[in-house]
């Protein structure tokens, strides 16, 4: 049976929220999706029947391997669509999320497999996040937040965490794009804002911004 749009949105939320042990709480899902707790509980009972989660009252949910795969396949559709819009239709990376939110609910597997083929099987989306393969497998990355870097370090901008269009526009205006080399010049003790050097020009980034930027050394 095909998954519903609502189920896919819940699956995607599980994908983003699950911790290293495969666990997530009902409260976390409720806040992330802006859905009331009773509704989340009811949906997770359905997910339990589908063997996507292990549901026990008053305990964190445990996402099963079957549930992890289902969630990854929804994310695959979203990220492939974003990549297609950027690479083949020349959209900016700040303009693709909303469109992908709509197209990710198309159920035709062959449609997304063809998209994958046309793109030559990309490993990452336009925001640097890994694209799950057709079996739901995903590349692990050894990245850290820019906010965790030290003065003097040289890093490469590799990815952004869940971000809205305004933040992506903020980065674009400062020429902070994927694979950009960044040098940490100064970290303010007062508010933890960070002065960085990008292509010979210095920029001051807020703590909120540096926590969303993921880098590799």
TrEMBL record:
Per UniProt, what is one Pfam family of this protein?
FeoA
The segment(s) forming the HTH dtxR-type domain are 1-64
Instruction: Output the Gene3D superfamilies linked to this UniProt entry.
Output: 2.30.30.90, Iron dependent repressor, metal binding and dimerisation domain, Winged helix-like DNA-binding domain superfamily/Winged helix DNA-binding domain
Xref: SMART domains: HTH_DTXR
InterPro entries assigned: DtxR_MntR_Metal-Reg (IPR050536), Fe-transptr_FeoA-like (IPR007167), Fe_dep_repressor (IPR001367), Fe_dep_repressor_sf (IPR036421), FeoA_core_dom (IPR038157), HTH_DTXR (IPR022687), Iron_dep_repressor (IPR022689), WH-like_DNA-bd_sf (IPR036388)
Q: Supply the alphabetized keyword list.
A: Activator, Cytoplasm, DNA-binding, Manganese, Repressor, Transcription, Transcription regulation
According to its UniProt record, where is this protein mainly located? cytoplasm
- Identify the domain of life: Bacteria
Which cellular compartments is it found in? Cytoplasm
* Family the entry assigns: Belongs to the DtxR/MntR family.
The role this protein plays is: In the presence of manganese, represses expression of mntH and mntS. Up-regulates expression of mntP.
Q: How does it assemble?
A: Homodimer.
Q: What is this protein called?
A: Transcriptional regulator MntR
Organism, by scientific name, is Chryseobacterium edaphi
